[in-house]
Amino acid sequence: MAVAIFSTMIVLLLFGFPMMIPLIIGAFIGFYTLFGGLGQLETMVQQMMAGIRPASLIAVPMFIFAADIMTRGQSAGRLIDMVMSFVGHLRGGLAISTAAACTMFGAVSGSTQATVVAVGSPLRPRMLKAGYNDSFVLALIVNSSDIAFLIPPSIGMIIYGVVSNTSISELFIAGVGPGLLILLLFSIYSWIYAVRNKVPTEEKVPWGQRLTAMRKALWPLGFPVIIIGGIYGGIFSPTEAAAACVLYAVFLEMVVFRELDLRGLYNTAKSTGLITAVVFILIAAGAAFSWVISFAQIPHQILSGIGIDQMGQIGVLVVISIAFFIGCMFVDPIVVILILVPIFAPVVENVGLDPVLVGTIITLQVAIGSATPPFGCDIFTAIAVFKRPYIEVVRGTPPFIVILLGVSAALIFFPQIALFLRDLAFR
Amino acid sequence: MPKQHHESQPQSQTDTTSVDDIQTDDYRSELPGILGSIDMGISRLESILLATGVLLMAINTISNVIGRFVFQSSIFFSEELNRVLVILITFAGISYAARHGRHIRMSAIYDAMPSSARKPLMIGITLVTAVFMLGLAWYSTQYIMTLYGRGRVLPSLQIPVWLIYVWAPVGFFMTGLQYILTAIKNMLEKDIYLSTNVLEGYDDDEIEV
Amino acid sequence: ETWRYAFEEALDEVQGVFAQKFKEEVEANSDHTVQLFPYGTLGESADIMEQAQSGILQFVDQSPGFTGSLIPEAQVFFVPYLLPQDEEDLFEFFRTSVAVNEMFPELYADQGLELLTMFPEGEVCMTTKEPVTSPEDLNEVKFRVMTNPLLVESYQAFGATPTPLPWGEVYGGLQTNIIQGQENPMFFIESTKMYEVTDYITCAGHNNFTTAVMANKDFFDGLPDEDQLMIESAIDVAFEHILEYQQGLHEESIEKIKEAKPEMTINILSEEERQPFKDAAATVEEAFIEMTGESGKEILDQMKEDLNQVTN
Ligand code: NA
Ligand code: NA
Q: Could you tell me the pTM of the whole model?
């Protein structure tokens, strides 16, 4: 059944069906086969509704909304002008700033999709203007956003910690090293890209103008203050921070800068709703599909056949990496963690692997999977928000995937990348 | 950006705006007479639900923070209200997205085909999509009726759970209808349409570099 | 035949241990096999409940706190200080209670469910950032509770600011201080690492987390007598197993927490310290009766009588 489902889905996808259809038909085939007919399709609907239920998903429309208001108005432009006054004269400066901004924003907001929108939408036009190629820009935004999975707070790590009975604090600290390493490698790649493609640099800005740019960005600098200060100061959850940003953006653009009228606000809300719907229906369909995979115990069947019990530590880590990588290509990361972690738990214990290391590696695979074709929620989001064809969004991805897989391999052979900080703090 | 069929000029692009304005006023129903008016009314309603859904979600979430932080009292139904709004936005939105050809698809192979092959393929795609949307409309209705029979309520709002799902079958049905209309449009006209109003193809000069 | 059984916790938590024992018994005494689906693998609590009602799942474990939205009377288990605080009394109560063993099965049957058993999962304790010895200490403390009206009522009565927060955000919320407390059984505090982000654990004896195992009624009624008996005896074995497993689980979890975080303070409140909490809780009972009417009152009265039987 698994083979039939996956191949049907890929074919439908390639022939240009709306992407919800391969997922819906995949789930449908599963329900039809499992229950011998149409009798239990209500449960398929139930799982679609369950897919868009998590309260944390609210952050996505809220950050889309805030980012859209900022980009339509002056806030985003002023912030970027300020950043450019400092890095515009450096090769790859804007790209590296974008990667860093995605990492930081993603780390705090806890939502990679929100990051794609909130950081991507103001910065993408500026990068295109600066001479970067769109497929590079899109891949950079999507992949840098996914570093957020590794930097605390990380919902993936919390779920892993609970399911595997592992210290969440230790996981959080262990993720920082690999996360920063990936950011560093992305920055180096951005620099190489800028040099090779002769992306022009701007003239170095004197300090006087930099101060002017900073003064102009004073109001919009409230956004990072709200997000970082609000979340770490215990005023609100990441989801609520998103709504607070909406409020602040409305205040800036309607009251301070007077760029936006009520009509504009209404239209922004409408287009936010549209993007949300287009992404959420895919999350809904994906949830129904995940349920089928879980109910039919397909992962158990596949994994029981490969003899993982006879493998050593490295072998087990490689199998875990591959399993999560492939799983996250098709299924929601949280569900993958919930299903696969208990299956691997006994093996991990038998070969004496450090569960914190395993958790870090799994989280990294989850990050990669979310940015990887065919079904990655961050790819959906980028397509919906930037309105570029699927193929263009993923065309620039390979170098990033190579870096991410390289870091995965490095983690397997040099666990200290993850465990160094943990040992420093806890051992 | 998909070309709007009824515009002679390409839509103006402000280069800092990542998200487009779809002007509801631009949507022209392909249906004749009274049916057309109903269709346009529904389109208008969908866009109103989308916008107010998002605005209410923001107000609701912010009010909860203010309540908790300033008045030491959380709004207990805040999360449940957001669930209602998410479902409303999603299902008003999928039909609205279908009207405007905005559903995400991977068109690499499709785009490489000659238009003689693309036309029947597009008709096939829209019909298959319509069948599944209408099927889901039916089964989500069944699901709502089952929930109605069981009588489960939301813990905080204490309203029946089935109420929050009512927009789902409507959204699926309207989406299915849009895809049927698109299939018919493709059978009748020479060009290839993504939706009744939108011709296929991405506009490559979206951003002036 | 393959039977499917879903529950609300991980495989190595209390509901999972019960399910594993049940599976072991069924498979040893029949040709049937049981597939287990832990938390989240088939959806959340409400989802697996619906799937059991529609017959996709044969067995489901759902705690009455969640079932309260379907069967309001089930919320009786959230009335504070109703269940005995002594372990032996508590176990005896679940074995003999007329409310649990006769009245609730009828209510569940109306929802297409065969109630197989109810069992306690452990005393609920609070984890907080500051010490709690009286309701005054909970003043202005934003306390995360499940979205259940009676729980909200309880913590309001205790003087806290009950704050709903999705489970996924609780750990982060405690870390960043959006909330300053939450409650759960000790094994769950240990396994979900709540102690990492709080400094005090306070046991006031106000509740013992209760859960229930059910079968789809049509499925169960359609089974031959010998299978029904086999299931019932497997449930009995698992029930006794889980009571035994629980003796000492509370203490064992405390030890694990102490080992992981020696500076953690664990406070078992004395009788005198508990009294103001008990006094405050009286209003919750009224709220329960108001919410559930005559039938709720009947259950409540019966439970009190059952408890009298046990303690006297
Ligand atoms: Na993060
Ligand atoms: Na993916």
A: 0.89
